[in-house]
Design goal:
With 301 residues, this protein is α/β, with parallel strands linked by helices. The protein has nine helices and 15 strands. Strands 7, 8, 11, 12, 13 and 14 form a six-stranded mixed beta sheet that branches. Strand 3, helix 5 and strand 4 form a beta-alpha-beta unit. Helix 5 crosses helix 9. The longest helix has 29 residues.
C-alpha cells in the first residue's frame, strides 16, 4: 500500500465514523474542501462510490461499509502500535538483548543486573554469551560487552568495568610434583589447561608482559575446555595450571587452594566497555541500564 492510499483511507474512515465532512475535517485539522477532494480522489482510483452525501448527512455505501469493516481494524492496530512505541520511549519496559563474553557476564553484567532489575519489573534483560566480536546490529542485539581494545571504532563505547589482570594458578599438590615456572617459556614443560573459545575455535592466548614487552606462550596439557568455570574447577583438582582472570580466582588464592605463579609477568587487559550503534531515540529501558552500568563502574573506580 502506498503512503497516498493509506492517507486517503484514513480520511475516508474519519468521515465515515463522524458522519460529517465538517466534523472529520476539524478532527484531522484540514479544510472541508481538501478532505472532500481527498475522498473523491480515492473513489476515483477505486472506481466506486464509498459515501452517500446529502446536505445533512454522510453515510457509507454498501461498498464503503465493506471497505470500512476491513480497514478500520488495521488502522486501529497501526495506531495502537504507535502508542506502544511511545510508551516504550517514555516508560521503562521491554526486553534488552546483550552479547558478552563469559567473564564479562560473571564480573560485570550479572552483579549490575541483579541490582537493577528489581526496581524495574517491566524490563527484561537477555544475555547471550559470545567470545567473538558479535555483529550486534545483524544479531539484533541492543548492545555488546567486550574489552575496550576490541570495540569497533564506529561504535559508541561506555566503560563499565575495571582492568582485567590475569593469573597463572595451580594447586599446592600440583607444585609439590612440579617446580613452579620462573619465566613464561617454562610453561611448555607444564600441564596447562587450555580454554578453547567456542565462537571461533582458537585457544585463548596465554599472554604475559614485563618491562613494556608482551610475550605469548603456546601451552599444552591434558584437558581443553570451552568455559572458564569448569576450567577453574579442573585447576582446583590439581590436574594442571590455568590462566584465568585474577578476580575469578582471588578467593581461592587467599584461602590457599590455589597458588599464583609468574605474578611479575602478569598481563593486564583493558576493562570492559558496553558498546552500541546509536545513542539517538533509545528506549527508556536501555537508557536506564546504560546509566546503571556506568554509575556502577564509577563507584568501583
Amino acid at each position: 500500500m502506498t503512503g497516498e492510499n493509506l492517507r486517503d483511507l484514513h480520511a475516508f474512515v474519519a468521515v465515515a465514523k463522524e458522519g460529517s465532512f465538517t466534523r472529520a475535517a476539524a478532527k484531522l485539522g484540514v479544510s472541508q474542501s481538501a478532505l472532500s477532494q481527498t475522498v473523491r480522489m480515492l473513489e476515483g482510483r477505486l472506481g466506486i462510490r464509498l459515501l452517500n452525501r446529502t446536505t445533512r448527512n454522510v453515510s457509507p455505501t454498501e461498498a464503503g461499509q465493506s471497505l470500512l469493516s476491513q480497514v478500520l481494524p488495521a488502522l486501529e492496530e497501526i495506531a495502537q502500535g504507535f502508542a506502544q512505541l511511545g510508551s516504550l520511549r517514555e516508560r521503562p519496559a521491554g526486553t534488552i538483548r546483550i552479547s558478552a563474553d563469559e567473564y564479562a557476564v560473571h564480573s560485570v553484567l550479572q552483579p549490575a543486573v541483579a541490582r537493577f532489575l528489581p526496581d524495574y519489573p517491566e524490563i527484561k534483560v537477555e544475555i547471550t554469551t559470545d567470545y567473538g566480536l558479535a555483529d550486534i546490529v545483524g544479531g539484533r542485539f541492543d548492545a555488546g560487552v567486550r574489552r575496550g581494545g576490541l570495540v569497533a571504532k564506529d561504535m559508541i563505547a561506555v566503560p563499565i568495568g575495571p582492568e582485567v589482570p590475569m593469573s597463572v594458578v595451580g594447586t599446592p599438590s600440583y607444585f609439590a610434583r612440579n617446580p613452579p615456572p620462573k619465566r613464561p617459556p617454562d610453561l611448555v614443560t607444564h600441564a596447562c589447561l587450555n580454554l578453547r573459545l567456542p565462537t571461533h575455535g582458537d585457544f585463548f592466548a596465554w599472554l604475559f608482559q614485563k618491562a613494556g614487552k608482551e610475550h605469548r606462550v603456546r601451552v599444552d596439557g591434558p584437558l581443553v575446555l570451552n568455559s572458564i568455570s569448569p576450567l577453574r574447577d579442573a585447576a582446583l583438582t590439581g590436574l594442571g595450571l590455568a590462566y584465568l582472570p585474577m578476580a575469578y580466582v582471588r578467593e581461592q588464592i587467599a584461602s590457599g587452594q590455589l597458588i599464583e605463579v609468574l605474578s611479575d609477568w602478569r598481563k593486564t587487559f583493558e576493562g570492559y566497555h558496553l558498546y552500541y550503534a546509536n545513542r539517538c531515540h533509545a528506549a527508556a529501558a536501555f537508557t536506564l541500564l546504560v546509566e546503571a552500568l556506568r554509575l556502577r563502574s564509577q563507584a568501583r573506580a
